[in-house]
Amino acid sequence: MTQNQEVKWSCDILLEPFSWRDPKTVRVQPDLFEPEIRNAWRDKVFAAMALCPEHRFWLRTAYPQLYSQYIEQIAHDRLEWLAWRVAMSQMLRELGRQEEATGDGPAWPLANVEVE
Fold first, then answer.
1. Using CA atoms, how far apart are residues 15 and 44, in angstroms rounded to an integer?
2. pTM
3. Inter-CA distances, 76 with 37, 69, 108, Å
């Protein structure tokens, strides 16, 4: 079994993880839970991570309480989850995969995302 290659992802190109051929261990930078980062952008980053389950994403944050709040909101608040699903649907449309934008989507918290 080959070991995953580790890469850094600055999230400035949201579709970048879709171009990686082999499974990667991904160090996500910047801190997605800096207070000035908007949830709409965060939703897009998490949509990309959800749509790339072959990769393992590692987040570092100085704000673990904001991470926990974000995850809890999407996992338990239907309106927050729907807002996140809109971001995911938009990304699928950009990828020409809009037919995949049906169903329940992945369970939260995302299995391929870890926080350290």
1. 10
2. 0.90
3. 21, 10, 9
Q: Which residues contact 90 (CB under 8 A, 6 or more apart)?
A: 44, 47
Biggest distance spanned by C-alpha atoms of the chain: 41
d(CA 44, CA 2): 30
pLDDT digit string, tens, across residues 50-76: 999 999 999 999 999 999 999 999 999
Residue 50: both structure tokens together? 């959800």
Structure tokens at 88: 């995911």
DSSP state of 3: P
Cα of 2 vs its chain's centroid, Å: 24
> How far, in Å, CA of 41 to CA of 24, rounded?
22
| H helix and E strand count, the chain | 3, 4
**CB atoms near residue 42 (< 10 Å):** 20
In the structure encoding, which two tokens stand for residue 1, read together? 């079994």
